[in-house]
Amino acid sequence: MNVLRVRGLESHHGLLKAVRGINLDVQEGERLALVGANGAGKTTLLRTLAGIHRASAGSVEFDGANVTTLPAHQRAALGIALVPEGRRLFASMTVTENLQVARSAKRTGYWNLDTVVEAFPQLKPKLRALAGSLSGGQQQAVAIGRALMTNPRLLLLDEMSLGLSPVAVQGVYDSLSSVVSQKTTLILVEQDLQRTFDFAQRIVCMLEGSVVAEGRTDEMTRDEVMAHYFGHRGSNEKKEYA
Q: CB atoms < 10 A from the CB of 218, how many?
């Protein structure tokens, strides 16, 4: 069953069209990766899906309901959560306070303070520490944990490994196994292609705001993805939707 259905989605930054006619179906429990060079439109697409960036055309359906014009807080209440690039924590608040902010979504489910700390054990000794004092990996864990506290059905993860050490990145991905076990639908932006292939079930390649190719990770090669990444292959290979 599709939890997300996107048709003809467009978004602008001023006069610049950053997202161009995106068609996308995402099944419940699927792990989908968006790949592409800087400026390909990946972050704008995630922000538009989350309701932070306004769509200028097209539609977004979540769980069968049209949410195209709903603001971010209403989408969060329905079960869409974004972990933004750069983490965007409240630096002067404690880890616990950052996590509990998300309770305003008022959704019930598996995720609460205890289960988040169980999934991200590196946070247990840091609950009273200020978020601004944490390492990059710990801050990323808080950012993901905060999103999980809304008990999302769709979790959007933007540049999870950006600026983190390999050890910190591995720790974050290890912790995501708990999210996968809850069959949460995931859409992530990840520059590390090896991790993309290891974690995601399907890859969508973006170039200049458009989808130029997509496929299952067990059916695509790194060379194919890199060719689309740099625009060396034609957009006529992308999958068309009815």
A: 8
pTM: 0.90
Distance between CA atoms of residues 74 and 70, nearest Å: 6
Contact, 157 vs 186, CB < 8 A?
yes
- pLDDT for position 104: 79
Give the full edge-to-edge strand order of the sheet including 154-158: 80-83, 154-158, 185-189, 31-35, 202-207, 210-216
Short-list 64, 97, 103, 65, CA closest to 81:
103
Local confidence band at 238 (pLDDT 50, 70, 90 cut-offs): very low
HEC sequence for the chain: CEEEEEEEEEEEECCEEEEEEEEEEEECCCEEEEECCCCCCHHHHHHHHHCCCCCCEEEEEECCEECCCCCHHHHHHHCEEEECCCCCCCCCCEHHHHHHHHHHHCCCCCCCHHHHHHHCHHHHHHCCCEHHHCCHHHHHHHHHHHHHCCCCCEEEEECCCCCCCHHHHHHHHHHHHHHHHCCCEEEEECCCHHHHHHHCCEEEEEECCEEEEEEECCCCCHHHHHHHHCCCCCHHHCCCCC
Give the count of alpha carbons within 13 A of 233, CB side only.
16
Q: How far, in Å, CA of 167 to CA of 153, rounded?
A: 28
Strands 65-66 and 57-62, by their bridges, are antiparallel
For residue range 59-88, list pLDDT tens digits in order. Answer: 999 999 999 999 999 999 999 999 988 778
Q: Given this model, what pLDDT does residue 15 score?
A: 85
